[in-house]
Amino acid sequence: MEMAVANHRERSSDSMNRHLDSSGKYVRYTAEQVEALERVYAECPKPSSLRRQQLIRECSILANIEPKQIKVWFQNRRCRDKQRKEASRLQSVNRKLSAMNKLLMEENDRLQKQVSQLVCENGYMKQQLTTVVNDPSCESVVNTPQHSLRDANSPAGLLSIAEETLAEFLSKATGTAVDWVQMPGMKPGPDSVGIFAISQRCSGVAARACGLVSLEPMKIAEILKDRPSWFRDCRSLEVFTMFPAGNGGTIELVYMQTYAPTTLAPARDFWTLRYTTSLDNGSFVVCERSLSGSGAGPNAASASQFVRAEMLSSGYLIRPCDGGGSIIHIVDHLNLEAWSVPDVLRPLYESSKVVAQKMTISALRYIRQLAQETNGEVVYGLGRQPAVLRTFSQRLSRGFNDAVNGFGDDGWSTMHCDGAEDIIVAINSTKHLNNISNSLSFLGGVLCAKASMLLQNVPPAVLIRFLREHRSEWADFNVDAYSAATLKAGTFAYPGMRPTRFTGSQIIMPLGHTIEHEEMLEVVRLEGHSLAQEDAFMSRDVHLLQICTGIDENAVGACSELIFAPINEMFPDDAPLVPSGFRVIPVDAKTADAQDLLTANHRTLDLTSSLEVGPSPENASGNSSSSSSSSRCILTIAFQFPFENNLQENVAGMACQYVRSVISSVQRVAMAISPSGISPSLGSKLSPGSPEAVTLAQWISQSYSHHLGSELLTIDSLGSNDSVLKLLWDHQDAILCCSLKPQPVFMFANQAGLDMLETTLVALQDITLEKIFDESGRKALCSDFAKLMQQGFACLPSGICVSTMGRHVSYEQAVAWKVFATSEDNNNNLHCLAFSFVNWSFV
């Protein structure tokens, strides 16, 4: 096989180095001719006919070669390049598959050992049971293993603990100490990041990962030991003691603080021993476990803000791989002390899937990301280096975590808590921005308004994706402009303090993303125009730096975030960032009812409690079992605002009001995207969920029959009000209703109408009537509007309208009619205008 490939390459190379002369014989290219052609190929692999002729004229050594032969040479050269690249790619895939096959074989051996161990344990239990049954007088004797006494304050004692930690970690990474099961939704394969597993029936929560990384073991160990660089929940990590272990390794005493994911639970800290050593087979190991004693560790005053969690034997096993790179095994095994959080949050602290997503998978992804950046496989926007963009992402995430947690040693103090809606307002007077810019020395500090709430049946990825793509649905652009104004230097550079009109449109410019697109970094430009005549030609755009994570709906246990901060349009590397945003964390519904959250010591807001509009109390109680088993998630909102000393109370009031409006907007969005909410796609559930929609459907149908003398909907004699709404909703024509205001806006649409406009029921209320018609459609509507108001209906000719996404929609005919509201005294009052677009389709 190899000889055949070699012969093929030799023939291919030989054909490239020969050409036909004027007599029709093959003549070999000279070294000078090949060198000249290679120079041109390096500049332009596919030269045009004019360029080839120019080459022959300028290069005398090519004068005796036909242009056609030059063309053939370049074709063969490109083909050879393509073959080389393909061969290199196949070799890379082969190495990856070989390494993956080795991992799978090791996993298979481990599973076989686990099966054998379970069989032995089963036989032993049967034997013990038989002994107890046959001899009732026998007493059970439990032998407690006697560990040698170890002094954690002496090097010898610490070395003994380190060796024990190493043995326990290796038994978890490659042995059967933990009953591992495959992580849901994470199937191994040549294109996957690695093999992931979570614990089953063990103390605490544990996750394991193994994969192939194209970095050397020592480099990987350095990266993983720097936990704050890749573990976003790590607030700080300090090494307080380090000494050699005597066998070429090192022992460190480490104190680590982690952030709490919500405002409803305290943060965690760890006091651990970390042991770094190498094995006889050339592998590199970093293992870690907690040291006993809740009071251990530095700075007792700072540690009082945390709950001491336990790290069981965890770490990293890194083995050099044949052909370069490393095979890495990661184990994270924690006891997060779930007793200290409200019952509704306990699944978050008792879930191995959450630990896998936050720590284990994140570590492996981060290393893979750095490996690809080192190899030049990752391209970023705006000419920024990967390290700079990675620093921006870390600063955004850290700033948001600081705001959510509000640690006292960072200068945060609670100003007040809005008892009605559980909005916490905290201030940080020590967090001045004047250390970045002297022109901002008047600032008094930063104020944060934050809240956490429970959502029912709202997919986190869908919610975050909607908030990212439809910012106008929840954001106030003038508030964004106010926050951006604090980053400007000088009194006359405050666009938020001048009359400004924002168009509501946003432009998202991507900067970079991780290898699996689980995190995206981007710049958002909010378009604004000055209303002042003297500033008419000055830009009032607002720019935001933004990260979006967790928008993959198939990721199990993944947290979804949208974090943003105003930034100068020059986008400097050292720009000050004051992040705000949203975090949505899925919570497994396996504990008590959601009402436990309301009775817990920590207060929260249940958005869905105000959305329950069931038909009757008995039906609501009948559905309680299904709601308790539904999916739930915790939404945390935190918005930060810089303030001046003399405006602290005013900014606090504005912040509370703004966060309250954001909560209300999220409530509407949650209602629209929740499968259990008032969603028209549920058909029969529309009636109990929206009585107004039922009534409006009746008025639309009756008014159509009154004006046009025909039926809009085919309803049988026994048809209920519910069936009227359902028929209207499922009607093939796009039916929309708009208000009678000076600038009519839409207030209702059936499914076909929403599809035609490419919008949702929530966003429909911001669309005006004139916005959907093109110029000829608007003229036709204006010419027939008087007829519509006089006789009650009008038929418009075929035309073109425009969806919210800018796509053109053609329709054969449009019918408009007045919709009257029937009151109890049988008086008809004009309620709105209805439009029906017949046989519409996208152009």
Automatic annotation (TrEMBL):
It is found in: Nucleus. Residues 151-379 form the START domain. GO terms for molecular function: DNA binding; DNA-binding transcription factor activity; lipid binding. Belongs to the HD-ZIP homeobox family. Class III subfamily. This is START domain. Residues 20-84 form the Homeobox domain. InterPro entries: HD (IPR001356), HD-Zip_III (IPR044830), MEKHLA (IPR013978), START_lipid-bd_dom (IPR002913). GO terms for biological process: cell differentiation; meristem initiation. GO terms for cellular component: nucleus. The keyword Coiled coil applies. It comes from the Eukaryota. The lineage of its organism: Eukaryota, Viridiplantae, Streptophyta, Embryophyta, Tracheophyta.
